[in-house]
Give the backbone structure.
Amino acid sequence: MTPPQRQRRDPAPEPPPPQEGEGKVRNPERMYVVAGPDGERAELDLVTLIVARATDPPPSASPEQAAVLRLCAAPLSVAELSAYLHLPYSAMGVLLTELLTAELVQARAPIVRKQRTDRSLLEAVMNGLQRL
Amino acid sequence: MVSVQSPPGRGERPYTRVLLLPAIAMAAATGAAVALVTAPARLAVGWCGGIATVLVIATAAEAVRRGRALRKQRGEHARHSAHLEQRIAAHEHELVRFSREIIPAALQLLSTGESPREVIRKLGLANPEYRDLPAPQAETLLTVLKIVDREVTMRDAAARSFVSVARRVQAIIHQQAEELREMEEDHGRNPEVFDDLLRIDHGNALIGRLADSVSVLGGGRPGRQWPEPVSLYSTLRGAMSRILEYRRIQLSSIAKVSVKGIYVEPVIHAAAELLDNATRYSPPQTKVHVTATEVQTGVCIEIEDGGVNLNEEARARIEGMLEAAKAGVDLQDIGEHPRLGLAVVGRLCTAYNMQVSLRASAYGGVRAILIVPSQMITHEPGVGLAHGIGATGIPMTVGIPEGPKRAPKRRRPTSPKIPATVSLEDDDVPEVTEWTPNGLPQRRSRVKMPLAERLAQQEANEKADREAAERGEYNPWAAVAEPEPKPLRDMSAPDAPGKGLEAFWEGLKQGIEPGTHPTDFIRNPTKYLHLLNDPAPTEADDEGDLK
């Protein structure tokens, strides 16, 4: 006689092994921990240039702040930083404002190309064309 | 069987010997009386004496008989009571065995998941002594087992329904987190919307933790798994993101290790509960310090708050709570535990072999220590630290049902996403945002500042730079200072741009009468047919013509 088999109280079946992700950066942090929703935002434009004042990040800096300081050894625009860090512009604003308050970075409006350069280039082109 | 009968011979003397003495005494008394009394009375006295003797003998015989009957009955009685006592003792023994051996053994078998009848059958197989239980005992055992079985089934069902509800909540939370993530990407340029989305995201994470807690207490597994190792820093920030007052948490000197993917969720959850306790039971203006160091057995995460000091009594109570949780808390007991978090931590610690303890902190508050065993830790770089940055996170769900099938939203992102495939190096491709009325793409500048203002600012910046340079200060902007435009080349120099082309044209014009266009031979080929018959000019001529 075969004993009646019961289903209950069996251990749950083992979940399938995790599959490979679709190439996304996977990590359990949420964005508000990186840049708080109630954080202050300085007047930063997408093209505002950011440069680090200190080369070595302080030990208390978060990885994002350290990354900004590393990237901004040479001036970079906010838009570029936002793309490199995979952080939206709004989050970048909070992050940079914190750094600006801590006086770790400097911000400056972008450099404008002057008309003078354009004019000389145009003249050169014109000269070349006239010679034809 | 013990004999309680009196030894034979003691009470079994023959009647004659027992009756002899009174009969002789009576006969002697009768004889003496007959001898003493006068002759006429002798007959009567003799008769009386004889009758009396006979009566005495008869009485004595009766008494002896009764005595013997009594003794026999007493013996019977003693035997009977001894038998009864023996039976009582045997019953007691049976009962003790039943309660101390059989029922525990049966319950143990039952807890392995057998049905009551199976349990009784297996009990007989395991120990032949248990095979032939008396009918009432067998019946009692069956009844008890059935009752226990039903109760266990009901508890099980209750826990399962809890867990299944929690899993459904988890599924919805998970889906919502994913959508919020997309929305955060979509509206990243819009600070007001973005901040609101972050707030919703935070609330969502809080609900998710509650659902996770119920699931863990119901014996479920964490609903998420991370495909790759996650750095401990990111893991702890993940824990931070699931509590209400995450801003008060301060991570410092976190060991550079990663948590293996399948263990990330338990560590996050346990740490989140401990962080929640720390922030909840300390003043709102104090910070909670978190450090993580590598120790022999793994990684030790220390969470220190500046709250009320834990006296010995409270510590013992909390440790007891943790111990109880480690032993297994039922969902039914939750009501008695106001600190749900510790029950969850205890459960997780048992399931994943982590260790937790609470001590008095140097800050005057409580120091919670969570030791994550080394088999959950890896030294591979985690996903977070590989880039050093990044806060995206979408785990895969395991064992939780799919979220509700909501119609996909037609997204209208207010800020375009940058796909990972696009290289950031060549950003020359114009981004078409609007179209002019005649169908041409128009590139709209996203810079809000008018040009005049920017030029003015530029002047100010340059002035500041010059002043800084005069003062001899370090100027980080010098690297990007506008490069001086190169002076235009001297057009008369032999290597000036366009000189080669000019020489080419000059060459073409050679041999053509002035006034004719250099490419005239294409327009009137017939006019130049004679050139085919002419000998080709020598190389020396060509060389000479170039100069």
The radius of gyration of chain A is 27 Å.
